[in-house]
UniProtKB/TrEMBL annotation:
PANTHER family: ACETYLTRANSFERASE, ACYLTRANSFERASE 3 DOMAIN-CONTAINING PROTEIN
Domain spans labelled Acyltransferase: 7-355
Spans traversing the lipid bilayer: 12-34, 54-72, 104-124, 173-195, 207-235, 247-267, 334-354, 375-394
Protein name: Acyltransferase 3 domain-containing protein
Key words, A-Z: Membrane, Transmembrane, Transmembrane helix
Record bears the keyword Transmembrane helix: yes
GO molecular function: acyltransferase activity, transferring groups other than amino-acyl groups
Length: 442
């Protein structure tokens, strides 16, 4: 695998990617864990309790990805602006905006082609008959003709970026929001490159207030806008404090911020009224937000933002996130995100339901029933093997697929910029510490 500098934001991205996979496994196999208790009269399971529930929840991880997007994509322009190098800042923004689109769209298209191919060789056949609603909803038919298959592929590739839905992989619904979020960063940076830092802080404040009152329904304001703005705010802090950031606050405060953030990020996806602690949070947030707002997204935002700030000011937390394990998780975070749903619908489903498929269960009338999963031990072993295959495949993706995508994007952007041929070779699109370093969501 190509070398990549270890940094704490990469490690945090890796954690968020792992949490997303855990959350989807929970939705597929034990969806009742998304509630803090089965009902108001039933004692909660261990993984329904605050903090522990983060092990099976992935919603706050999505907020983390938007925070990281705001942070990483703005850190370079802010640094150049503060140094008075406005021309370099504008140039960096222009180049990053084009490169970012290619680096996000092209690998996603490849992942969709893989899922499309599997669907059309009937690899998803078993998902239609399992007892997991979430896995069953991921089933896609085998198209009746080659022409229909290619039409379906084209439709999926386009709709991923237009309406935010990929019929071959529903988990890609966030990707067009990540692209929009990046453009929000570039637009804000473009508008504020020439202003002094204090003025930019005021801009962040007004943007934050705007997005806070915007969120209704899915709460795109809370999911995308608030997190992007806070990410830019933290990037401003980075350029202000630089290497002294971890010594600004007394040691216990960043740790307390991380703990408080983890508690808020544990706000349940479902059934908040089933426990006192989550119901109290629900009531409080309804008072602070607009009518019909999705309060879950606001708690996800506040929790993830507080965790990010705590890590930013904590030397120990940064040290943990720059360890080799977390650095690896960060390097493979995007392919893990792109492939995990496909692997759940194939590899994991085959391992869990194969014994039942070999002897399909029938009811008293002799009618075929949904396939049943194996024992708890069987499922845990299957999940362990699934994780190994997923992360091994992601490492191979980074080693072989990413460089090819990078070459295509480099060539296309160099042609678009009119760069001489010599400038096309060896110039990375994503430069560490610059505006060109973009976040790849998992």
């Amino acid at each position: 695998m190509a070398p990549r500098d270890a940094n704490w934001i990469d490690g945090l991205r890796g954690v968020a990617s792992f949490m997303v996979v855990c959350g989807h496994l929970c939705t597929a196999l034990v969806p009742w864990l998304h509630s803090p208790a089965r009902d108001p009269k039933t004692a909660p399971h261990l993984f329904q309790l605050p903090f522990f529930r983060l092990a099976v929840g992935g919603r706050s991880a999505v907020a983390l990805f938007f925070l990281i997007t705001g942070y990483v994509n703005s850190i370079g322009p802010i640094g150049k602006s503060r140094a008075g190098n406005n021309d370099a800042a504008f140039t960096g923004i222009a180049r990053s905006a084009l490169a970012r689109s290619g680096r996000l769209v092209l690998p996603t298209m490849v992942a969709t082609v893989i899922s499309w191919f599997l669907a059309n060789i009937n690899a998803y056949h078993m998902t239609k008959h399992v007892d997991s609603t979430w896995i069953r909803q991921g089933w896609h038919r085998q198209e009746p003709s080659l022409w229909a298959a290619f039409r379906s592929l084209f439709k999926a590739e386009v709709e991923t970026w237009t309406i935010g839905w990929d019929e071959y992989d529903g988990t890609q619904w966030t990707l067009h929001l990540f692209l929009e979020g990046s453009m929000l960063v570039y637009m804000t940076m473009f508008a504020t490159v020439m202003v002094k830092p204090k003025a930019r802080f005021i801009v962040y404040a007004f943007l934050y207030m705007y997005y806070w009152q915007l969120g209704g329904g899915l709460a795109v304001g809370a999911l995308k806008g608030l997190n992007i703005v806070v990410g830019m705010f933290v990037a401003e802090l980075h350029n202000h404090y630089k290497d002294s950031a971890t010594s600004v606050l007394p040691a216990p405060i960043p740790a307390l911020m991380i703990v408080a953030g983890m508690f808020m990020a544990g706000y349940p996806q479902d059934g908040a009224q089933n426990t006192h602690w989550s119901h109290s949070m629900q009531i409080l947030m309804h008072k602070l937000t607009v009518k019909d707002a999705d309060v879950r997204r606001f708690w996800d935002h506040l929790g993830a933002s507080t965790v990010l700030l705590g890590i930013f000011f904590s030397r120990n937390a940064r040290k943990v996130l720059t360890s080799p394990v977390f650095n690896f998780l960060g390097r493979v975070s995007f392919p893990v995100y792109l492939m995990h749903n496909t692997f759940i619908k194939t590899v994991l489903t085959w391992m869990i339901y194969l014994p039942s498929a070999m002897n399909p269960p029938r009811n008293e009338k002799g009618e075929t029933m949904d396939l049943q999963r194996g024992s708890t031990t069987h499922v845990f072993i299957a999940i362990a093997v699934f994780y190994w295959i997923l992360y091994r495949s992601a490492a191979l993706w980074v080693q072989h697929v990413d460089p090819l995508c990078g070459k295509v994007v480099n060539a296309a952007t160099a042609w678009a910029y009119g760069d001489p041929p010599s400038a096309q070779n060896g110039r990375p699109i994503l430069r560490n510490g610059s505006a060109d370093k973009t976040v790849l969501p998992a």
